[in-house]
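Posted in: Structural Biology > Protein-Ligand Complexes

Title: Requesting predicted complex, heme C in pocket

I'd be grateful if someone could produce the 3D structure tokens for the following input. Sequence and ligand are given below.
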Amino acid sequence: MKNEILLFLLFGCIIFSQSSCKSDDRSHGQGGQMFANFWQGPEPFTNEELTILNETLNISNTLPDFDVNNLGHSNGTSRIVEPYTAMLGRVLFYDKVLSDDLSISCASCHQQSLAFADNQAFSDGVNGNQTLRNSIALGSFPSFISTYGAGAVNDTINQKLFWDERSSTIHNQLTATIQNPNEMGQLLYSLNLRLNDRPYYPILFKRLSKEGTITNARILTALATFLGSIHSQNSLLDQALIQMGTNSTIDQDLEMFNLSQELGRELFVENCMSCHGKSIFESADILFTSANNGLEEEYLDRGIGAITFDENDNGKFKIPSLRNIEMTAPYMHDGRFETLQEVIEFYNSGIQAHLNLNEELKDVDGNPKQFNFTEEEKIALIDFLKTMTDETLLIDSKYSDPFK
Ligand code: HEC
Ligand code: HEC
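-- Reply #1 --
Done. Output follows.
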């Protein structure tokens, strides 16, 4: 009998925990709960702890519900998010202690009211430096978080991160961002020591594991968990799809849309969807995740080409999500366009004949497409893009700054 139990434990260990069964870390799956002395999960904050936390933070034992709930989309998303881990991630996201000169937090360049982008072509980072590219809106990239906020940090995600797709794990993206001298300029290996000096972190980290140590892996797990809880799916477009029933798609007429939004939807499906489909559904089928959309005949910033050293990749950039696009001006990897009008005019008449220009933007003779949209159609496209603005995301208190 004893042997059977041992076997069962061993088996459970293999099935449930990819990383290790030694770990008591909550973020490594449920398997370990079979061990008698396994950590059972976070205890509520004590009154003493709350007094310390509340000197700096607005936090109580009633944590926000960070779960992502499918609102009824044909293709929506649900995931369970461990609330103490997400709450810690939220504190880290808004804390300037993550940057070398204590002047910058993630939220400096990813502002909630701007759909977690900012309003500058290049963002101000530490020590007076600027980023080399435009900040990317968060909350709309495909899910990478499994139950419990997960081994997520090492999970490969199905859409790579950054304009040049140089990161395929959230762990890698976060490390690059924190250490980037133009962004936060903080070496990761000593970040845990810094956090230890703030009275609130030892308390918050105690909710992640039995012994409560602040480790860099846990810093990344918490940030990744919070990022994974930010999910935009309550725009007018979403509501219009939900109203049409669970099998509705963007190819069909949407009753909640006015005439201009409907015209814009048709134009979008015909001309833009093949590349920007992931804007609508995480699981949309698209042929490629990056493209050269003909901004230049000669790119100064070679994008993916500078990573792969392959000429065929020059001028290719990640195809950005267009969710909340109304809020995230200026546009493109270098923030060259101030308004959506300028973007539409670019697609209408300004596409350049780069050698790598994507086929979708070429006409039958292989020249850059001239869409020749009418004024009415240009307005309609913009009206459609604005149906992807999700007001809930912009003001939802669970994503807001927890500092007093
Ligand atoms: C100084 C401004 C700045 C700060 C601070 C900053 N970011 Fe960013 N973030 C950017 C820019 C710019 C990009 C795009 C960079 C690129 O593609 O080369 C980006 C990209 C990202 C991406 C990739 C999104 C995608 O869809 O590919 C994520 C995720 C992200 N940041 C999260 C964070 C988190 C979390 C923090 C805090 C730990 C943070 N950022 C701090 C400016 C910043
Ligand atoms: C061949 C694929 C492709 C097609 C088709 C396409 N786009 Fe894009 N789009 C891209 C890429 C790639 C970028 C980013 C380019 C860069 O920054 O260098 C982009 C960027 C954008 C942006 C700016 C996003 C941001 O966050 O800065 C908007 C808005 C946009 N496209 C709208 C449209 C519209 C509207 C259409 C249809 C008329 C369209 N796109 C068709 C690939 C495409």
